[in-house]
Amino acid sequence: MKKTSCLFLFSCLALLDFTGVKKPAGASDAHNGWKKLFNGHDLNDWFVKINHHLVGENFGNTFRVENGMIKISYDQYGDFNDQFGHLYYKTPFSYYHLRFEYRFVGKQQKGAPDYTLLNSGVMFHSQDPRTMLKDQDWPISIEMQLLGGFGDGKLRPTGNMCSPGTDVVYKGIISPDHCISSSSKTYDGEQWVKGELIVQGNKLITHIINGDTVLQYSRPTVGGGVAHGYDPKYKQDGKLLSAGFIALQSEGQPVDFRNIEIKQLPNTDR
């Protein structure tokens, strides 16, 4: 057989598994337990809660799907008016590995606080948004904070931890700080950045940026301040958080998310 014919046959066989059937796209990830949280087409598995609005009201079409991405936009807003929002996946999780990609785009919305410039996040272990009051700004939750660089050469890490209405143990003590900086690099401009979050109930939590572990902490607990306007019966200080909802954050800075996937891990509490 000619050499070129052999190479062609070998290439065809490489596309087949041992049954002789071509593997569908994503089969390997599915086999390894990964599930898409975002299907790339619609938000049917997600629901919205925006400050000053009732749950389910997607004010200004803040959260939308375009070109296979979840886009967080403010082109139908006037003044921002502290309309902090979150897009929640429909079910809670406890032990899991989450991965996603994000990028900052466009300009900060008029009236948004200065600290929200190139700032977004992924909330987890969040209270059910259906328990949030109309004028509650932040869900009681933990946040994997996502920041973009200002292009000025100064360090501005991403993959940090913030704690609205919660506390965490960091380096052996309950952290006195609302946010803990990670050890990540700074990512300027509109580049895509890969984030990962490994959550083990109320035990160890790990933040990963572009493949590097950048932060670890443990024992997420209800407590602390920052969240406002909540129903007091849902802020039971001292209660360990072992599960909750996952949400994408809207703070006044346009941002895109894509390739949002989750892999559930063994629950060692059982």
From TrEMBL:
Chain ranges of the 3-keto-alpha-glucoside-1,2-lyase/3-keto-2-hydroxy-glucal hydratase domain: 33-263
Highest taxon of source: Bacteria
InterPro entries: AL/BT2_dom
Protein name: DUF1080 domain-containing protein
Provenance organism: Mucilaginibacter sabulilitoris
